[in-house]
C-alpha cells in the first residue's frame, strides 16, 4: 500500500518562505553602496526562521490537519516577506528619501514582520495539538490578538513614519494598553 502524497500547498509555502528569506538577505547584504553596512549577524538571525519553515513543512507532510505546522511556516513566510520589504526599502530610501510611499512601505513591512512575531504566541498556546488546551484559554488568545493589533497600531502612530493619513487615537490607545500590560 502506498503512502498518500504530502500536500503540495505546504511545500509551495515553504519554498516561498525560503525564497523570501534568500532574496531578502541577498538584497540586504548586497545593498546600495551609499547605504550603511549591515553586520553579518543577520544570517544567524535568519536561521531559526528557516528552521521553522522546514519543521512546519515536515509536520504538515505527516499530519496535514495539524495547525502547528501551518503556524510555523506562516511565521517564517511573514518574517521573510518583512525582511524582503525592509531590504527593498533600503534601495528606495537611498534613491529617493522624500518619496511618500516609503512611509507606507515601512508600515507594511513592519506590520507583516510583527504579525509573524504575533503568531509565535499561538504556537506556544496551541502546542502540540494545534488547539487551545481548553476553552478557558480563549481570553489569552484574545489578549494575544489584541496585543498584536495594538503593536501594529503603535507602529502606525510612530513619529518616524510619514504616512499621508494620520491616526491620532492609536498612540493614546497603545499607551493605555502598555500601561495595563506592565502591571
Description:
The protein is mostly helical. The protein has one domain. Helix content is 72%, strand content 0%. The chain contains 6 helices and no strands. The protein has helices at 8-29, 42-62, 67-95, 101-126, 138-156, 168-181. The radius of gyration is 19 Å and the shape is globular. It starts with 7 loop residues before the first helix and ends with a helix. The model is unreliable at 163-174 and 176-183 (pLDDT under 50).
Layout of strands and helices, then pairs:
Layout: H1 8-29, H2 42-62, H3 67-95, H4 101-126, H5 138-156, H6 168-181
Low-confidence stretches: 163-174, 176-183
Radius of gyration: 19 Å
Q: Percent helix among the residues?
A: over 70%
Q: What is the strand content?
A: under 5%
Shape: globular
Secondary-structure element string: HHHHHH
Short description:
With 183 residues, this protein is mostly helical. The chain contains 6 helices and no strands. It is globular.
Notable traits:
183 residues, mainly alpha, 0% strand, 6 helices
Amino acid at each position: 500500500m502506498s503512502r498518500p502524497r504530502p500536500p503540495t500547498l505546504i511545500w509551495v509555502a515553504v519554498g516561498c518562505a525560503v525564497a523570501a528569506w534568500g532574496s531578502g538577505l541577498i538584497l540586504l547584504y548586497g545593498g546600495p553602496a551609499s547605504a550603511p553596512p549591515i553586520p553579518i549577524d543577520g544570517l544567524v538571525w535568519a536561521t531559526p526562521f528557516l528552521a521553522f519553515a522546514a519543521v512546519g513543512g515536515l509536520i504538515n507532510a505527516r499530519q496535514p490537519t495539524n495547525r502547528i505546522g501551518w503556524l510555523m511556516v506562516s511565521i517564517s513566510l511573514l518574517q521573510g516577506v518583512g525582511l524582503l520589504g525592509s531590504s527593498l526599502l533600503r534601495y528606495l530610501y537611498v534613491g529617493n528619501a522624500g518619496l511618500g510611499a516609503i512611509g507606507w512601505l515601512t508600515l507594511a513591512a513592519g506590520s507583516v514582520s510583527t504579525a509573524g512575531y504575533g503568531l509565535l504566541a499561538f504556537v506556544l498556546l496551541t502546542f502540540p495539538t494545534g488547539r487551545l488546551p481548553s476553552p478557558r484559554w480563549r481570553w489569552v488568545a484574545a489578549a494575544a490578538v489584541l496585543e498584536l493589533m495594538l503593536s501594529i497600531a503603535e507602529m502606525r502612530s510612530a513619529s518616524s513614519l510619514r504616512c499621508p493619513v494620520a491616526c491620532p487615537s492609536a498612540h493614546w490607545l497603545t499607551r493605555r494598553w502598555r500601561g495595563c500590560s506592565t502591571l
